Amino acid sequence: MLHRMSRAFTKESDQIEPLPEIPLSEHPNRTTPQGLQRQQQRLAQLRMHSSSDASLQDQLAAQNLAREMRWLEARIAAAVVIDPATQPRGRVAFGATVEVIDENDVRASYRIVGEDEADAEHGSVSWFSPLAKAVLGAQVGDEVVWRRPAGDLRLEIAAIRYE
Predict the structure, then answer these.
(1) Which residues contact 113 (CB under 8 A, 6 or more apart)?
(2) Number of neighbouring beta carbons within 10 Å of residue 55
(3) What is the residue extent of each domain of the chain?
(4) PANTHER family from the xrefs (predicted)?
């Protein structure tokens, strides 16, 4: 009589399945010089860890590291650097910090940046976000409509700065 051992007690292969690649955006990788510099610094950091850190024995950690490096390499290679200093003054364009006043007299400032730089908590929004689409091309004094899922909001352009 042949007895089968439960798979729970057998050693599975030590190999783990490859992780899926981090998806690349369908949008052009517009970025500020600072955004590109941050990506380059992060890639250099990852390369240093991958080549000098002997403690990276965990296969999953090594795969994650390699995957992030491939993603950063692709994003850096596709970068279209737009220096805010070269943007035309007087209109909201990529790299601008725009101050708006909404219909409730609430003031807010947003900086139009690349997708990988966007950080809404710190007032940076992607150039293809609904807010950026509403203000791009506007001048001080213009009224625009920000189309939001929560409902449209009228904004007046109060100031435009390029830093």
Answers:
(1) 31, 32, 35, 94, 95, 124, 125, 126, 127
(2) 7
(3) 27-81, 87-162
(4) TRANSCRIPTION ELONGATION FACTOR GREA, TRANSCRIPTION ELONGATION FACTOR GREB
Residues 160, 90 contacting (CB under 8 angstroms): yes
Query: pTM for this structure?
Result: 0.77
31-77 pLDDT, tens digit per residue, is 999 999 999 999 999 988 776 554 445 777 888 889 999 999 999 99
Give the pair of three-digit tokens for residue 7: 């798979």
Class of domain 87-162: alpha beta
| pLDDT tens per residue across span 104-147 | 999 999 999 999 999 999 999 999 999 999 999 999 999 999 99
The answer to whether 131 touches 146, Cβ cutoff 8 Å, is yes
Q: Which two tokens stand for residue 81?
A: 């650097």
Torsions phi, psi of 98, nearest 5? -115, 130
Strands (E), the chain: 29-31, 79-81, 96-102, 107-113, 124-126, 143-146, 153-162
What is the Cα–Cα distance from 110 to 100, expressed in whole angstroms? 8
